[in-house]
Automatic annotation (TrEMBL), chain A:
Residues 323-430 form the Asn/Gln amidotransferase domain. The gene is gatB. One of its GO terms (molecular function) is ATP binding. It catalyses: L-aspartyl-tRNA(Asn) + L-glutamine + ATP + H2O = L-asparaginyl-tRNA(Asn) + L-glutamate + ADP + phosphate + 2 H(+); L-glutamyl-tRNA(Gln) + L-glutamine + ATP + H2O = L-glutaminyl-tRNA(Gln) + L-glutamate + ADP + phosphate + H(+). Belongs to the GatB/GatE family. GatB subfamily. Pfam families: GatB_N, GatB_Yqey. InterPro entries: Asn/Gln-tRNA_amidoTrfase_suB/E, Asn/Gln-tRNA_Trfase_suB/E_cat, Asn/Gln_amidotransferase, Asn/Gln_tRNA_amidoTrase-B-like, GatB, GatB_C_1, GatB_Yqey_C_2, Gln-tRNA_amidoTrfase_suB_CS. Allows the formation of correctly charged Asn-tRNA(Asn) or Gln-tRNA(Gln) through the transamidation of misacylated Asp-tRNA(Asn) or Glu-tRNA(Gln) in organisms which lack either or both of asparaginyl-tRNA or glutaminyl-tRNA synthetases. The reaction takes place in the presence of glutamine and ATP through an activated phospho-Asp-tRNA(Asn) or phospho-Glu-tRNA(Gln). HAMAP family: GatB (MF_00121). Its EC number is 6.3.5.-. This is Aspartyl/glutamyl-tRNA(Asn/Gln) amidotransferase subunit B. It is an enzyme of class 6 (ligase). Heterotrimer of A, B and C subunits. GO terms for biological process: glutaminyl-tRNAGln biosynthesis via transamidation; translation.
Automatic annotation (TrEMBL), chain B:
The keyword Ligase applies. Gene3D superfamilies: Amidase signature (AS) domain. This is Glutamyl-tRNA(Gln) amidotransferase subunit A. The gene is gatA. Pfam families: Amidase. GO terms for cellular component: glutamyl-tRNA(Gln) amidotransferase complex. PROSITE patterns: AMIDASES. Heterotrimer of A, B and C subunits. Its EC number is 6.3.5.7. GO terms for biological process: translation. Residues 24-450 form the Amidase domain. It comes from Candidatus Gottesmanbacteria bacterium RIFOXYB1_FULL_47_11. The active site is at K78, S153, S177. Allows the formation of correctly charged Gln-tRNA(Gln) through the transamidation of misacylated Glu-tRNA(Gln) in organisms which lack glutaminyl-tRNA synthetase. The reaction takes place in the presence of glutamine and ATP through an activated gamma-phospho-Glu-tRNA(Gln). The lineage of its organism: Bacteria, Candidatus Gottesmaniibacteriota. It catalyses: L-glutamyl-tRNA(Gln) + L-glutamine + ATP + H2O = L-glutaminyl-tRNA(Gln) + L-glutamate + ADP + phosphate + H(+).
Length: 432, 470
């Protein structure tokens, strides 16, 4: 029997707003001294209340719109109640049944929802005065975190990787997150099961692999899981519904937690935050802030600048590079194709070289200074006359001799003159 | 100065005219607390040195001719109010040693208006209770008869005002907790419109019901304090931008032509005590004689109010109390008192998968109906009049082992919190030596009218002039 994978994704993305989700503390927490960016709100002190960060809500909706989602005109926050030492209130403010964005799609994968929640603190397991202890750092507590949930529409590890790369690209285009997987600001969780090819029903189990931090690891983890599930199914077993983790060193997933029963988070509407009610003009306003997205941009570049697929993909990889290219084009002195070659092949540092400077240096490097033909011919004649040895050597077939003569002409002309014409003239004159 | 009868109005005048200084006033209160509070149990923490240094500052300001609404006026804060570096227990031993690093917004507002923080008052732990007996420390006693309860949960603050330990007692009212102790202690208690006074820094009981109010001896004093505490706060997303009127300006206006509604469901209830009924009817008669038109109204979903309340409120409580896990501060969870545990269990159950629809969700729908009851009624009439409590203050121990009987003492006050509208309790007589309060309920943000009605009634009756004798 052959099998096909059934894969859904959950992706968490930390937004790069200046302040946290519900208080004024800075949201940038990576590599900061522990517990230096906290206040009564993000420490969950008695009496402290959350006030939502408007920007984080707008950005969530922006992402939802970029993923083709509907934006319900009513939405609310809910409390997700559970105990964990990194969760100071004993509940996470999240969204349950009425998220900001629903029913989108990306690269043929349906997006079920995009919602906003707060990140938790971070546990550090360490040894202090000879004792093994767990410390809590609350700098990350309350950082805005967007969760994107897809339908189980992905059918291969490669498709999962491509989907995630596209999502990453869009998030970067929107400039709402660093989406830096090594720093944990983008976390990937595939839900994986397999079914006999040709069947349509969802399998009666799924395995979640938690907190993976690279697209390649997602691909590998899915490949590993799919093989494992097929083997189990072939031997007549159903894989256990559970949460697993990816061990990159060994290239395997390992069981972390069995999920025999669904968790009961006792969700209920967050009473400290009034629900959001939008009118459609507000949503249109947010929509207008969305820049041209990668796929549209690529299509336009191909048409407008007559570029091939390869160049287009490279140029539109980031919005910064695409914008840089277009600024160079606007200066309107160099053909697009030539610009692409320089920008891509010479690996121009777009943060360092201004577009105008780049265009100038391309012109300088490729410019042809016109020399009257008589002068050119005269110089070639002179060089041949002055270097009889080299001429002889060339006639005997020594290619370096031509290079020497060519160099000598250039030297006399101080770099001016059409290089091809010089080479041609040299050959003609020597042969005659 | 007679601290048992002193009002804010009189104290301000005396401070201005240098009849006494703020330091003298504070010392007199501290002496009185030290002499009498062992019998009453109003305070959990008295901040003597803090109060005296604030009093000195107030005197310096008075000397410079600075005037502020509450300059030099002592205030006793319910222990749910976060006070920077001053122990804040919520009446619960689980955070016995907790000292907040910040002030509640409303505490800052008192301090900016020149008030002096005397200390923190006893209460039913976390605000869970109607008698003051659920304090994890010791019960508070009624100054009119110490064998009776003072009403809760803001028990200590009410007693602090009634017993002459402070001029203002702050409270919170989630179901009854300001109006009930105010009525049991012969003082004026304001339960604000939900969101009118910021909750930031006041320890949450049930976030969508909690209101932040205060108790004083007179209606004028109450209105004056409200001018200080009311208004939107950027730290509390549930406080709308509604302008704050000068509440004291509505006092003394005539009641002619105003309409009052009497909910038939309340007065037909069998549980209402004969003495309470008589006193309340007399008070309503007095208001009629002052020009109010009184008519019967209906609040048809009244019978579901307590059930609705005791599903929704414990649900929010179970979530709000989950931060007291002993990980970062405080003791471990086995330190929770019996009532807190009961409500955590109730709420956790009501929110559980498989029960949510039958309990929480259903109760949320009932909440909407009760809200509509009040909205509809208040389209016809300007205010609703009702007793605060179906009985006079009961004896200590009388209901403590019967939680349901205890819950039912809130039957006329809880629905107001479900609706989110404001209500005022004003003294309206006695059953023997025990005080009784009249409840005046109004439209959202309609507190001004409540003060107008209460002050007209108070001018005629002056029940507040009958102090507790210690």
């Amino acid at each position: 029997m052959t099998y096909e994978p059934v894969i859904g994704m959950e992706i968490h993305v930390e937004l790069k707003t200046k302040s946290k989700m519900f208080c004024g503390c800075p949201a940038k927490h990576f590599a900061k001294e522990p517990n230096t960016q906290t206040c009564p709100v993000c420490l969950g002190l008695p009496g402290a209340l959350p006030v939502p960060n408007k920007k984080s809500i707008e950005w969530t909706i922006k992402l939802g719109l970029a993923l083709g989602c509907e934006i319900p005109l009513f939405s609310k926050f809910d409390r997700k109640n559970y105990f964990y030492p990194d969760l100071p209130k004993g509940y996470q403010i999240s969204q349950y049944d009425q998220p900001f964005c629903v029913n989108g799609s990306l690269s043929g994968v349906r997006i079920r929802r995009v919602h906003l929640e707060e990140d938790t603190g971070k546990l550090q397991h360490t040894t202090l005065d000879g004792k093994r202890v767990t410390l809590v750092d609350f700098n990350r507590s309350g950082v805005p975190l967007v969760e994107i949930v897809t339908e189980p529409d992905i059918r291969s590890p490669e498709q999962a990787k491509e989907f995630l790369k596209k999502l990453y690209q869009i998030i970067r285009y929107l400039d709402i997150s660093d989406a830096d997987m090594e720093k944990g600001s983008m976390r990937l969780e595939p839900n994986i099961s397999v079914r006999p090819t040709g069947t349509k029903a969802l399998p009666n189990y799924k395995v979640e692999v938690k907190n993976i931090n690279s697209f390649n690891f997602v691909k590998k983890a899915i490949e590993f899981e799919v093989d494992r599930h097929i083997k189990l199914l072939e031997s007549g077993e159903t894989p256990v519904q559970e949460t697993r983790g990816w061990n990159e060193g060994k290239g395997v997933t390992v069981s972390q937690r069995r999920k025999e029963e669904a968790d009961d988070y006792r969700y209920f509407p967050e009473p400290d935050i009034p629900p959001a009610r939008w009118d459609s003009s507000q949503i249109i306003g947010i929509k207008l802030q969305i820049p041209e997205l990668p796929d549209q941009k690529a299509a336009r570049f191909k048409k407008e600048y007559q570029l091939n697929d390869y160049d287009t993909a490279l140029l539109t990889d980031t919005k910064q590079l695409a914008d840089y290219f277009e600024e160079c084009v606007k200066i309107n002195k160099i053909p697009a194709k030539k610009l692409v070659n320089w920008i891509i092949n010479k690996k121009v540092d777009i943060d360092d070289v201004l577009p105008a400077t780049l265009v100038k240096s391309i012109i300088a490097a490729t410019a042809v200074v016109a020399i009257p033909d008589e002068d050119l011919e005269k110089t070639v004649q002179t060089v041949i006359a002055e270097n009889p040895k080299a001429v002889e050597d060339y006639k005997k077939g020594k290619q370096q001799a031509m290079m020497f003569l060519f160099g000598a002409v250039l030297k006399q002309l101080k770099g001016a003159g059409d290089k091809n014409l010089i080479r041609e003239l040299l050959e003609v004159k020597i042969k005659s | 100065m007679n601290l048992l009868t002193l009002t804010i109005k009189e104290a301000r005048r005396a401070l201005q005219s240098k009849e006494f200084s703020a330091v003298e006033l504070v010392r007199a209160y501290i002496d009185r607390i030290q002499t009498h509070d062992s019998k009453l149990g109003a305070f959990l923490t008295v901040d003597e040195s803090g109060a005296l240094s604030q009093a000195k500052r107030a005197d310096a300001q008075i000397a410079k001719g600075i005037t502020k609404k509450l300059l030099g006026i002592p205030v006793a804060c319910k222990d749910l109010y976060s006070t920077r570096a001053v122990r804040t227990t919520a009446g619960a031993k689980i955070i016995d040693t907790y000292k907040p690093p910040y002030n509640a917004t409303v505490v800052d507002r008192y301090l900016e208006a020149g008030a002096i923080l005397m200390g923190k008052t006893n209460e039913d732990a976390w605000g869970h209770g109607s008698s003051g007996e659920n304090s994890d420390y010791f019960p508070t006693r009624n100054p009119y008869d110490t064998t009776h309860v003072p009403g809760g949960s803001s028990s200590g603050s009410a007693v602090a005002v009634a017993a002459g330990f402070s001029l203002v007692g702050t409270g919170t009212d989630t179901g009854s907790s300001i109006r009930l102790p105010a009525s049991f202690c012969n003082i004026v208690g304001m339960k604000p419109t939900y969101g009118r006074v910021p909750r930031y820094g006041v320890i949450s009981m049930a976030s969508s019901f909690d209101t932040i109010g205060h108790m004083t001896r007179t209606v004028y004093d109450n209105a004056l304090v409200y001018e200080v505490t009311a208004g939107a706060d950027p730290r509390d997303a549930t406080t709308p931008q509604v302008p704050v009127p000068m509440y004291t300006e509505s006092l003394g206006k005539s009641l002619k032509g105003l309409r009052a509604g009497i909910p038939k469901e309340y007065f037909r209830s069998n549980g209402i005590d004969k003495g309470v009924r008589e006193v309340t009817m007399t008070a309503i008669g007095k208001l009629e004689s002052l020009g109010m038109r009184v008519e019967e109204i209906s609040l048809p979903h009244t019978e579901y109010a307590m059930a609705c309340y005791y599903v929704l409120v414990p649900s929010e409580i179970s979530s709000n109390l989950s931060r007291y896990d002993g990980v970062r501060f405080g003791a471990t969870r086995d330190t929770f008192g019996a009532e807190a545990k009961r409500r955590i269990m109730l709420g956790t159950h009501a929110l559980s998968a498989g029960y949510y629809d039958a309990f929480y969700h259903k109760a949320a729908k009932v909440r909407t109906l009760i809200k509509q009851d009040f909205e509809k009624a208040l389209e016809k009439v300007d205010v609703i009049l009702a007793p605060v409590s179906p009985t006079p203050p009961f004896k200590l121990g009388e209901k403590v082992n019967d939680p349901l009987a205890m819950y039912l003492s809130d039957i006329f006050v809880c629905p107001v919190n479900i609706a989110g509208v404001p209500a005022l309790s004003v003294p309206c007589g006695f059953a023997g030596i025990l005080p009784i309060g009249l409840q005046i309920i109004g439209k959202q943000f309609g507190e001004q009218l409540l003060y107008q009605v209460a002050s007209a009634y108070e001018n005629e009756t002056e029940w507040y002039k009958k102090p507790a004798i210690l």
